[in-house]
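testing teh design pipeline on a random one, pls ignore if ur not involved
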């Protein structure tokens, strides 16, 4: 039985089949969660490789967080930003694990508790459910009221950290335009700027930030949303939050790959560079 036959949207197709992924849906509902799972898995594997590289488990590179070139280029790998260089070397030398682990919990916590991210994780990684009207493996899920899912309610606090992170990414993008005593522009500058831009769009479109800026939420008719007190920009950005989630995930991975692997580990030349 198709949803067309029922003349109702797919989400209202009843779940009558039992078993993992069992459904009466006839559309390609599995494509979206599959693509999401592939991107998330790629990001997870890449991040683990970064940590293993830093730990010296696979190879060793001299400048693993910051790429310096002979002509003064200075690019910070975004996954290690804020970088381990922000800490005293005595503290770092006493820390036996990859230094990025000291910081990475903040951006991962922000993404992991993201309202849009939860939908993505639950659908694509937990398959719970993988789609509307698709049977799910975990029947006991009872919302985010108990451990471990209650941790998701900490998202607002991760937002405060993410705002600092976005500022730091802009700082690293800014300093990438300086080549020693000269000003210039390389592919690293370009990709770090794109990373900072989409991270900012992702953070700026956050539901928690929209809620904060809306204000006075105990009285819906009094909120700034209703009064339209200059927060229309965040309403606009918020509508595209999911898009920024994905683009910023891909751009941070691409920027990190270019700086850490392409330039740092493999020792390639910049794709292009212009210095005054
Ligand atoms: S809701 Fe997605 S980052 Fe806040």
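output:
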């Amino acid at each position: 039985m198709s949803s067309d036959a029922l003349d109702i949207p797919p989400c209202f197709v009843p779940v009558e089949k039992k078993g993992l992924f069992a459904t009466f849906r006839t559309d390609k509902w599995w494509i979206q969660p599959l693509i999401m799972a592939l991107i998330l898995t790629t990001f997870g594997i890449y991040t683990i490789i970064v940590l293993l590289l830093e730990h010296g488990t696979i190879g060793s590179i001299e400048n693993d967080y910051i790429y310096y070139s002979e002509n003064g280029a200075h690019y910070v790998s975004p996954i290690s930003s804020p970088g381990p260089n922000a800490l005293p070397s005595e503290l770092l030398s006493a820390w036996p694990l990859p230094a990025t682990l000291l910081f990475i919990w903040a951006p991962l916590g922000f993404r992991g508790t993201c309202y849009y991210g939860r939908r993505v994780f639950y659908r694509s990684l937990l398959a719970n459910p993988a789609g509307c009207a698709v049977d799910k493996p975990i029947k006991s899920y009872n919302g985010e009221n108990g451990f471990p899912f209650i941790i998701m309610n900490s998202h607002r606090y991760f937002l405060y950290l993410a705002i600092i992170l976005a500022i730091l990414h802009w700082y690293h993008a800014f300093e990438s335009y300086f080549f020693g005593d000269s000003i210039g522009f390389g592919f690293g500058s370009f990709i770090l700027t794109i990373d900072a831009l989409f991270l900012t769009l992702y953070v700026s479109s956050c539901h928690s930030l929209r809620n904060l800026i809306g204000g006075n939420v105990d009285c819906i008719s009094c909120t700034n949303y209703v009064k339209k007190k200059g927060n229309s920009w965040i309403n606009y950005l918020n509508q595209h939050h999911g898009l920024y989630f994905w683009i910023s995930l891909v751009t941070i991975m691409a920027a990190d790959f270019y700086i850490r692997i392409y330039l740092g580990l493999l020792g390639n030349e910049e794709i292009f560079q212009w210095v005054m």
